[in-house]
Amino acid sequence: MTSLEEAETEETVTCLHLTFYHPCQDEKMVFRCLNFCKREQVRADEMAKFGRDSSVCRYNLMDTRVSRIQFSLQFYRKLHTLEYCFEIKNLSKKTKLTVNQTELSYLNKIDLPWKCIICFGDYQILAEIQEGESVDYFETHLHLAEAPILQEKCLPSLQPIPENGISPSFFLSQGKSPTEIDENEL
Question: Where would I find the FHA domain in this sequence (predicted)?
Answer without folding.
Answer: 49-121
